[in-house]
Amino acid sequence: MSGLKKVASLALSVDAKRALIDPHHLALSLRRQCDLLGLNRASWYHVPALAQDSNEDAAHMRLIDEEYTRHPFYGSRKLVVWLRRQGYRVNRKRVQRLMRALGLQDVAPGPATSQAHPAHTIYPYLLQAVAIEQIDHVWCNDITYIRLRHGFVYLVAIKDVYSRLVLSWQLSTTMEAAFCTEALQQALGLRTPAIFNTDQGNQFTSHQFISTLQQHGVAISMDGKGRCCDDVVYCMSTR
Question: b/e per residue, 86-123, with b = 16+ CB within 10 A?
C-alpha cells in the first residue's frame, strides 16, 4: 500500500497512473487503488477501447510488457524487430501506441547506470580486503527496476552492509539524480556511515549526491568501471 502512495506522489500522467491499476488485485479493491493513486475512478472506466476490446492488441501488449521486463532499455524499434522475429506482423507506429498505453514511454531508462558522467569525479575503491564488522562502517546503494502491471518504476535503496538493514528508499519514473539524493538524505537523517560505497552511475557521481556525502564527512568509495565483481559490498548485503 505504501508503494502506491509513493507512486502517487510522483508527477505521473493520468494514463500512467491508470496503467498501474490491477483490477484483479487480491488485497486492494479498485476503489482503494484509485484513491491511493489520486486517480478519479471514472478515468479508469473510460480506458481506451484498445486495452479492453482488442484481443490482438492485448496479446501484443502482454508480449511487449514481458520483453520490456527482460530488456528495459529497449525502445520501439528493437521491440518491433523482436516481435517480427516471433512471427507478429507489426509496425513501429503500432508498437509506439501500445507502449504509450502500457505507460512504458513514461518510464524509459535514461543513461546506463554503470556509466559515469565524463565531467564527474570518480573516487577510488576503498574496500579491498576491508573487514566490515560493525553497523555504520559501510553503507551502499543500488538501483533496480520494479515491474508493475504495465511498465516499471525505479527503486533506489540505501543499505547498511553489516546489518543488511534498508535505511531508506525512493521510487521514481526517471533515472535522474534527485531521487537518489533524496533517499541518501533520508538515511543520513537517521545516522552517518564511515564509508559509502557505490558504482560509477551518473546519479551517484553527480554533484548533489557527492556534496551530500561530503557535508556529512563520509568517505566515498566507488567500484571499478564495468567490473561487477568489485561490487562486493552490495552482494554481501543481499545474500
Answer: eeeebeeebbbbbbbbbbbbbbbbeeebeebbeebeeb
CATH number at residue 203: 3.30.420.10
Tell me the pTM. 0.52
Contact between 69 and 44 under an 8 Å Cβ cutoff? The reply is no
Sheet strands (E) in the chain? 138-147, 152-160, 166-172, 195-198, 219-222
| Residue-level length of the chain | 239
Domain with 47, as residue range(s), is 2-106
Domain count, the chain: 2
DSSP strand pairing (138-147 vs 152-160): antiparallel
For residues 172 and 108, the answer to whether their CB atoms sit within 8 Å is: no
- In this predicted model, what pLDDT tens digit does every residue of 67-87 receive, in sequence order? 876 776 788 899 999 999 999
CB 15 within 8 A of CB 103: yes
Assigned C-alpha cell, 203: 546519479
Query: Among residues 186, 193, 148, 146, which one has the least CA distance to residue 169?
Result: 186
In a domain, 132, yes or no: no
Judge whether 152 and 71 are in contact, CB under 8 Å. no
Number of other residues whose CB lies within 10 A of the CB of residue 233 = 25
* Residue 56: pLDDT band with limits 50, 70, 90: confident
pLDDT tens column, 156-183: 899 999 999 999 999 887 777 889 999 9
For 160, the grid coordinates are 547498511
* Residue 6 sits in the same domain as residue 52: yes
